[in-house]
Design brief:
- The protein is of the alpha+beta class and about 325 residues long.
- The chain has two domains: about 230 residues, Zn peptidases (Aminopeptidase, 3-Layer(aba) Sandwich), CATH 3.40.630; about 90 residues, Beta Barrel (Elongation Factor Tu (Ef-tu), domain 3).
- Helices cover about 30% and strands about 30% of the residues.
- It has nine helices and 18 strands.
- The longest helix has 19 residues.
């Protein structure tokens, strides 16, 4: 399985928080020989091996998006954000709206500078100021195209490789974790692990860790590793201390965030494996949180292992390909110790 191609395929698969079905189906189709389980809330999992420790690797399928909530008489669409958007990054962008008839395209428009007063140019718009324009003249034409409340939408994506070193795209958070889980699954099918490994793809992380909470409450593991991203601080404005992780510096042990401190036992275990195998790792305290917090609150020994990403939750999330490859090496070693 090509590591970059599978990441690109997952990034391009539609699946905003609460509407992850296309991602679930993509995973199933990639491994038709595997018996996947889907729980009541939509989490997907597969267990490989038997005996040894019970280990879970958890990544979330959902991405940021929007929900159409109203159709104006003139055909413009009002919408609400789903997940932690910065409103400044969404206007003057192309959108994809998922309908029963297929994908409908539109734009989130912005009043042009030629028609704007100075005070309008200086204003940071609110969500209530924004709308989607799908090129129709009235509400009836929008309805005829299959537009109804409540439909999911997202910003249209690019997928770019910079200097053969970096991937730039929207949705690395957390399709890179989903891709790592698939690469682990491929590895385990060829070389059965000595431990019992459960690979988990969760729902609705971006809207409150809801899938991880449901899964962790009903399943027991000795170790839970959440595979996610963390904001990299190697940026030009000099606030590296806010999130002291660098792209290219290796996978990150996200020891503490706003939800608390993760497992020191697992931190020491992971650092020992990395040192013995000469894999660079970083360790930080940062904001935000991951599915590991839900596992920890359920009484499970858990820790997030993350890929550092610049410009998190934007259209130009950027990660080091070397970090991606080294994270996979580290996870395989964890699974076999």
């Amino acid at each position: 399985m090509d590591k970059i191609q599978i990441l690109k395929d997952l990034v391009n698969t539609f699946g905003i928080s609460g509407f992850e079905e296309p991602v679930r189906e993509k995973i199933r189709k990639l491994f038709p020989q595997v018996e996947f389980k889907e729980d009541e809330v939509g989490n997907l999992s597969a267990t490989i091996g038997s005996g040894g420790k019970r280990i879970a690797f958890m990544a979330h399928m959902d991405e940021l998006g929007f929900l159409i909530n109203y159709i104006e008489e003139n055909g413009y669409l009002r919408f609400k954000p789903i997940g932690g958007w910065d409103v400044r990054g969404v206007y003057n962008r192309v959108v994809e709206i998922s309908t029963k008839r297929g994908m409908i395209y539109g734009v989130i428009g912005l009043k042009p500078p030629h028609l704007s007063k100075k005070e309008e140019m200086d204003k940071v718009l609110s969500w209530d100021d924004l709308y989607m324009d799908i090129g129709v003249e009235n509400a009836q034409e929008a309805t005829e195209q299959g537009i109804i409340p409540i439909l999911p939408a997202r910003l249209k994506k690019d997928f770019i490789i910079l200097d053969e070193k970096y991937v730039v795209t929207r949705g690395l958070d957390d399709r890179v974790g989903c891709a790592l889980n698939l690469l682990l699954l491929e590895n385990f099918l060829h070389d059965l692990p000595k431990n019992t490994i459960t690979l988990v793809w969760t729902v609705q992380e971006e809207t409150g860790l809801r899938g991880a909470q449901a899964f962790s409450a009903k399943n027991s593991f000795d170790e839970v590793y959440t595979l996610d991203t963390v904001s990299a601080g190697n940026l030009p404005w000099g606030n590296f201390y806010q999130s002291p992780a660098r792209t290219g510096g290796g996978p990150v042990i996200r020891l503490a965030d706003r939800k608390g401190v993760s497992s020191l036992k697992l931190r020491n275990f992971v650092k020992g494996i990395a040192e013995r195998n000469k894999i660079k790792v970083q360790e930080i305290v940062t904001g935000g949180t991951t599915d590991a917090a839900a596992a920890f609150e359920a009484g499970l020994n858990s820790i997030p292992l993350c890929i550092p990403v610049k410009y998190t939750h934007s259209q130009v999330e950027m990660m080091s390909i070397a970090d991606y490859h080294n994270a996979l090496k580290l996870l395989i070693l964890i699974s076999r110790n």
